[in-house]
Amino acid sequence: MATWRPDPTFYPSPRLAMKAPPEKLAYVVRINPNGDGRPDAMCVVDVDPSSSTYGEVVGVTEMPYTGGELHHFGWNACSSMLCPNAPHPHVERRYLVVPDIRSSHITLLDTKDDPTAPRVVKVIEPEELYERAYYARPHTVHCGPDGIYISAFGTPEGDGPGGIFILDHDTFEVLGRWEIDRGDQYLHYDFWWHLGYDTMITSEWGTPRMVENGVLGEELLAGKYGHRIHIWDLHRRRRLQALDLGPEQQMILELRPAHDPTKAYGFVNSVVSLKDLSSSIWLWYRHNGEWKIQKVIEIPAEPAEEDQLPDILKPFKAVPPLVADIDLSVDDRFLYVSCWGTGELRQYDVSNPFEPKLTGVLQIGGIVRRAGHPAVSGPLNGGPQMVEVSRDGRRIYFTNSLYLPWDAQFYPDGIRGWMVKVDVDPEGGMSFDPNFFVDFGDQRAHQIRLQGGDASSDSYCYP
Amino acid sequence: MGQEVWAWGSLVALGFFHGLNPAMGWLFAVALGLQERRLSAVFRALVPIALGHAGAVGVVAIAAALLGATLPRPVVLTGAGAVLLLFTGWRIWRRTRHPRTRFRANALQLALWSFLMATAHGAGLMLAPVIAALTPQTPPMSEHSLHLPSQSLTLGILAVAVHTLAMFSAMTLTALVVYRELGVQILNRAWFNVDLVWIVVLAGTGLITFGAGLYGLVR
Fold first, then answer.
1. pLDDT tens digits for A412-443?
2. Which pTM was predicted?
3. Are the beta carbons of A8 and B188 separated by less than 8 Å?
4. CB spacing of B188 vs A195 below 8 angstroms
């Protein structure tokens, strides 16, 4: 299985990854919201502008089970394999590790022989995860230097604590729970790390019970959802510190650390503030050996008429931005922010991470706005959600579904699934590619991964 | 005399071979230098890495020297060859898991990591036949026989020192050239699968040793 040379898609540093050739394929999970027994699938989208099937789904691999919901997935191996403290440079980036957030299956897809037709090579049954790690609802994958790290919302019973478990990157067996000393960490959502500082960061959403039937209004207003991030010793697997964003900040989701391993800072989004329904972006950073956190961006809610709003928002007479995903370009220069509620994708220049500058806004979908796209006629719903940036930072792709139980609350008339592409001006500013609109019809699209890696798939050990 | 030159030459050559392997330490030193943006950080890491390597090689070398001094040479060579071949088989059969440590490892952690890395790769075993071949044989009923173990101990230590010095030179030179001139982009092109080369070298050494030992036994 070992190769003679390192996988060409492993880059020692983010600088070198920026020079990678443009991606030709994108992998996108397709979710079936209809409950009609049709399984979810992994779709392959042609993103090569010179191809005759540009902007079309050129491959579909259905999951071998039904009744789940695919969410975030990742590669079995990435640039972190080149890390000197645990080198595994001759493993290949070829398998997609696809966790199911509802049924707790984990499916391994092999993309090597025909990248447009991923093959199911293994399904890890929920019981293996329950027994080996006592976790359930796996949802985010990161390839670490020493194994595949996957996060989970909680226990098989639907409570906490949620956390991280490890898959062996040769045998794909669940090795067990990652945490040794978690302190009072109970809620869990995302995780990523600063390899150059042996530091893990984790964030907080809610337990399976708190998210699987939509957002629980009473618990939200009582501030029961997550409002902290946790700093861990990555090697000793112990929590060192919790950073509280404040009890009014609810649901702290996506962690985007700087790609440069010498920089010890990163961005995380808070979905909603109980004060004014705003969303915010926070910067965590290391200062004299201590980790700190501060708010650097705030996006306000927009006033709206009651009759334009779903029930859950009627009392507030406003549309919250509901920032549910952010992504940082590989050169750590631009931060992309998805406002799923208001229907905006925002671009900030974060060259100085303490003072982000808004450099671009695109509108599409939205609870009230329903903005359209140059390629299709009529209004669109859903809003910018899972956003992915190409390695060279020139192209952005995003989809419009968040999570089925929440889709139903905020877009009760159903979402038409789509995926779009944005071209980026290297000095700031963005525009829609008018020739790229992938229509998933009554199916939903969520996480996107780009062939050979993207801005949220790889981590690096060399600056 | 010719055999001795050949043996010392092998110790040096194997030292270069071990030092050039990115997984044995130079890459770690480069990474720490880049992380701290200081050349001194590269050098600071290389010393404990070399000491850990010396420790791993030393354990085997001293055992080989003592056995070489007390047992007939063909027996030692046959035994060493068999151990090498078994170890090679184990390396092929078991997937290779590299030991891991903190990225910001301190000197002790670096030395321990290097010790484990060299042990897992059989770096010391590669040297065992060479050291066994260098050890002076005990002439039967000699009055010097009591001093021999200490003599062979000295020889074992000297062998480890020569090997480690060669390894350290190769490692330092490589780390310096990569840190100052080439940059880590050479990894994609130059990091060929050293593990496979190791397997070949281990197997080759094992076969030669085992063959030489058997030849001595039947002669």
1. 999 999 999 999 999 999 999 999 999 999 99
2. 0.94
3. yes
4. no
